Amino acid sequence: MNNEYAISVNNVGKTYRSRDGADNTVLSGLDFHVRPGQFVSIVGQSGSGKTTLLKTISGLQDPTEGEILVKGRPIREGLEDIAMVFQSPVLLPWRNNLDNVLLPLEFRGTRTEEATRYARELLEMVGLGDRATRYSYELSGGMQQRVAICRALVTHPELLLMDEPFGALDAMTRDSMNIEIQRIWRNTGCSVLFVTHSIPEAVWLADRVVVVGDRPGRIVADVEIDLPRPRGKEHRFSPAFSEHATEVESYIGVTAGIS
Amino acid sequence: MVASPDVTQKDRGRPAVAAGPAAERPVRRRGPRRDSVTAAVKAVVGVLGLFAVWELVVALADPPEYLLVGPISAFVELAERPGYFAENTFITLQEALAGFALGTALGVLCGAALHYSTTIRSFLYPALIAIDTIPKVALAPLFIVWFGFGFESKAFVAMAIAFFPLVINTYDGLGSVPHELQELARINKASAWKRMAKIEFIYAIPSILSGAKISISLAVGGAVVGEFIAGSKGLGYVIMLANSQVDLPSMFAAFIVLAAIALALFFLVDLAGRKLVPWKQHTR
Ligand SMILES: Nc1ncnc2c1ncn2[C@@H]1O[C@H](COP(=O)(O)OP(=O)(O)OP(=O)(O)O)[C@@H](O)[C@H]1O
Ligand SMILES: [Mg+2]
């Protein structure tokens, strides 16, 4: 298709076939494109297929219909450019933070001195420079998730997939992580697909908010967020911000905003 | 054949991953050193108390010596024939350890095969469960037919008993890896070997170790049962001989030695676990 997109989701559908033969169509006719360096939030009700979408984009699952192109190439070959952050950090308790960050490179067999230096820089960037040789049990939940973000960034991904990365954090930590992720994103220049249940979070962070409707999952709205950057805390209470949030909310069922 | 004192649910299954806000707990703990010292003191006091009660019961009830003797008689017996007991203990220990080592190796291998191959799992798992229902000591006569009256048959009985907890626990442990880590490995195209070495087997270690803790005591029992049935050496033989001679001090001396070696082996495995899995103590 088109090489100018970081990612193209072309008419993608995903149907799970259960053992009794019943088909469960989770995604249907999904079509959207992300420009390089864009930050796209994805919101939608629980069970609408957001996680399924991320797994399909990352190549963990194959779509049953359509195709996904990363920089114009089918995802099978493009895996190197993708990284994922999960809802829980799942750090390895027997590795210190630095070694946890380097795990993806060990998987790839490309752990080098230079990579180690970069991993330290990343930890520095998220304010954990002095904790490199500490273990995850010595960190708070927010700190652990920052290590997990470093672990995702260490492979220099061009596309960062985040599946409710701050869902398990308290509101205050979450706010500071939101400010932090904007900074990280600016520094690395990668494209981000960010799944969240929080509409304010989605609007605050994103260039675009894609609303996924359920049964089957499809795009019901694609809202451009043309607020100035960088966006500090004060922007969350601006009238323009509320307008966008209200608009996004109007596309979702009433229950989705809670969480 | 002492019941494993510490094999409870808390040691089974997945190692607690420090995940999410659950990890936001104070790091301050009582010094582990001091904890284990007081625990050891309590354990010793418990054992001494047990001996005291036992001696007291014998002193008060004053049973004939062919029914029950006190621990003092047993220890006197031990002191009078140290060579005899040491020699036979060494035999039983060797059989048990050989059986345990073999059972552990085979058990871990088998558990891993069950985890990694769906084909092997579908063929082997039902068969294993069926075999597991046979009391392993019932196999002892068969092993004696196959491997003779010597060392091997007892080691194989010990192995047969030690094997199953390790199969199950290895299989469980390998299956306990959080799916996010498996996905992380797949996204980064980790080879199967790297996945095993860097994640899966390390995750399984706590579970394998709790299997080993169960197996080590079982292996001692297996060796003794083998010696009951056939043999002219080992603590099982000591017990049988004492039985035929109505020599209760000697029999109780053998019980005490058995309990002591089972306990010692158990704590050795436990200690190995603490060395191998230092992170587990923090993630509780
Ligand atoms: N491996 C699977 N096999 C069968 N069905 C699945 C599988 N994974 C997900 N589903 C189904 O797909 C639907 C979408 O699930 P998914 O996890 O993608 O939703 P989600 O939007 O991420 O929800 P949430 O917001 O709660 O995380 C659900 O109905 C779920 O039951
Ligand atoms: Mg989800």
From TrEMBL, chain A:
Pfam families according to UniProt: ABC_tran
Domain ABC transporter: 7-239
Keyword terms of this UniProt record: ATP-binding, Nucleotide-binding, Transport
InterPro entries according to UniProt: AAA+_ATPase (IPR003593), ABC_transporter-like_ATP-bd (IPR003439), ABC_transporter-like_CS (IPR017871), ABC_transporter_ATP-bind (IPR050166), P-loop_NTPase (IPR027417)
One of the record's GO molecular function terms: ATP binding
Protein name listed in UniProt: NitT/TauT family transport system ATP-binding protein
Source organism (scientific name): Pseudonocardia ammonioxydans
TrEMBL record, chain B:
ABC transmembrane type-1 domain span: 89-269
Pfam families according to UniProt: BPD_transp_1 (PF00528)
A single GO cellular-component term on record: plasma membrane
GO biological process: transmembrane transport
Transmembrane intervals: 39-61, 96-116, 123-149, 155-174, 201-230, 250-272
Top-level taxon in the UniProt lineage: Bacteria
Membrane topology listed for this record: Multi-pass membrane protein
Region ranges (Disordered): 1-31
Biased composition (Low complexity): 15-24
Localization: Cell membrane
UniProt keyword list: Cell membrane, Membrane, Transmembrane, Transmembrane helix, Transport
Similarity comment: family membership: Belongs to the binding-protein-dependent transport system permease family.
Annotated protein name in UniProt: NitT/TauT family transport system permease protein
UniProt source species: Pseudonocardia ammonioxydans
